[in-house]
Design brief:
Elements: H1 2-20, H2 35-45, H3 51-66, H4 70-83, H5 88-100, H6 104-114, H7 117-125, H8 131-145, H9 150-166, E1 173-176, H10 183-192, H11 201-208, E2 213-219, E3 229-236, H12 243-247, E4 261-269, H13 280-294, E5 300-303, H14 310-314, H15 327-333, H16 342-361, H17 373-380, E6 384-389, H18 396-402, E7 406-410, H19 416-426, H20 433-439, H21 443-451
Parallel strand pairs: 4-5
Antiparallel strand pairs: 1-2, 2-3, 3-4, 6-7
Length: 459
């Protein structure tokens, strides 16, 4: 009710502003923006007009932007990058004043004047009815169009700076998603699921309605009925090693009071314009607290996570890791057929498991962080790499991206902080001895031994 009231209030302010402007649309509202038009609209919004007229101009600017072509949007961002940075002359004077007398007042003024004018522009655009959601959509356009343009990267930094404040976890609301949740939100859960596709309404119901299933999502008061991120949870007796059994239509339901393990098996970000704004770590921690209050017997919190970058790493570079194996392995992995041929599974497992462990423990990006994005997320949250699961995901996507591997990360509540500190400060990866032993295996020897003399190495 309070959200609706606030939205109605903004709309009322905007309508009042329209009356003050003689009910005429802002001159550029119906036309395609040129570079000059874009600059004029933004300059007008920064000119210090009253709240009512400012809300109108903000709304017209956002509407006009939404109607632009791809080239027009790129041009608009170029205008923001070129003409709406800091006031260089005033900033230079402030820097000289601080150099002469570096007191708190001079430092504060230098900080104030170093802020790009774009940030104030975004704040004023945010005053329009629905402005927050439109700015999130605007950043999604920017991410799609920026390419390697360093000037547009500066515009994105301003978005990120503001969004980190506007979407601070203190403003987010955790909601339990179940079969009684409004249909318009359930439709978005189906559409936004990014890890394991939800095929239809019945598939969704199997994930959120049974007594041993939970789903939670973060919402923001300014984005009504728009989930920001959601997590799907299974309550199980033991830690699962594959997604097929977890999502099977004919599986037996576990009584929640008997469950000892909560499995986070899918985490999906919903808003492209909020990429890089961290919600997931707070979501997992809040859901853990919710589940512990509801089900005190739960004592294990684990994930069943995808490995989206493994196959790409396996075949990349001049000395691609797959080159250490029999060439027949690479040929076989190019198709999905091996997953339906049980006699191929064991030799492939012995060949690939050491490489999978190497991928998690040793493969690093240029910045020195783990190459796998899911690993970076969970390890950075303080989880431990608990187990690598062969044939964990036999879907076409799982075979194509990860050669069927999935991973369990364990959130040990007594070790989370220490694991997080060791990962962030020293780059140390918390992993079980079983995973470390797997990484020390000689994959070529294992594969040859498993082949039992068959020249293909795949029998």
């Amino acid at each position: 009710m309070s959200n609706a009231f606030f939205s109605d209030l903004l709309t009322s302010i905007a309508e009042r502003g329209r009356s003050l402007l003689d009910r005429r649309p802002w001159p550029f509202a119906e036309a395609a923006l040129s570079t000059e038009d874009a600059a004029a609209l933004c300059q007008a919004l920064l000119s210090g007009r009253g709240e009512a007229t400012g809300a109108v101009i903000a709304r017209e600017t956002l509407d006009a932007f939404a109607r632009l072509s791809e080239d027009g949007k790129r041009e608009f961002f170029e205008v923001l990058a070129r003409d709406f940075g800091p006031d260089q002359d005033r900033l230079k004077l402030a820097a000289e004043a601080f150099t002469r007398d570096p007191d708190a007042r001079a430092a504060s003024r230098l900080h104030y004047l170093s802020e790009p004018r774009r940030q104030e522009l975004f704040r004023r655009l945010n005053r329009a009815p629905g402005g927050t959601q439109d700015l999130v959509a605007m950043r999604a356009d920017l991410l799609r169009l920026r390419g390697d343009r360093s000037n547009l990267a500066l515009v994105d930094l301003d978005f990120v700076h503001l969004f980190n404040s506007w979407f601070n976890p203190g403003f987010l609301v955790l909601r339990h998603i179940d079969w009684g949740t409004p249909a318009n939100i359930l439709e978005k859960i189906i559409r936004y699921e990014a890890v394991h596709q939800i095929r239809d309404w019945e598939d969704l119901r199997r994930r959120i309605d049974p007594q041993d299933r939970r789903c939670y999502a973060f919402f923001h008061p300014a984005l009504v009925d728009e989930p920001l991120i959601f997590v799907e949870v299974a309550l199980t007796a033991v830690m699962p090693d594959n997604i097929q059994g977890l999502l099977a239509a004919d599986r037996e339901s576990e009584h929640p009071e008997k469950a000892r393990t909560a499995v986070f098996y899918s985490i999906s970000n919903c808003q492209q314009g909020l990429a890089g704004i961290s919600f997931g770590n707070f979501l997992i921690k809040q859901v853990v607290e919710e589940l512990r209050r509801e089900l005190p017997r739960l004592d294990h919190f684990v994930t069943l996570s995808p490995v989206p970058g493994f196959m790409k790493w396996l075949v990349s570079g001049d000395a691609a890791p797959i080159s250490r194996l029999d060439p027949a392995v690479g040929e076989l992995l190019k198709s999905d057929s091996w997953a339906d041929e049980p006699d191929r599974h064991e030799p492939l497992r012995r060949a690939l498991e050491p490489l999978a462990a190497e991928y998690f423990l040793k493969a690093k990006s240029e910045s020195g962080r783990p190459l796998d994005p899911v690993a970076r997320f969970h390890l950075g949250n303080g989880a431990r790499l608990e187990r690598i699961n062969w044939l964990g995901d036999r879907s076409p996507k799982g075979l194509r991206e990860s050669a069927s591997f999935m991973v369990n990360y364990l959130y040990d509540l007594e070790e989370i902080e220490a694991n997080h500190e060791a990962f962030v400060n020293k780059g140390e990866i918390a992993a079980t001895n079983a995973v470390k032993r797997m990484a020390r295996g000689d994959s070529r020897t294992l594969f040859s031994r498993a082949s039992s003399g068959d020249p293909s190495g795949l029998a």
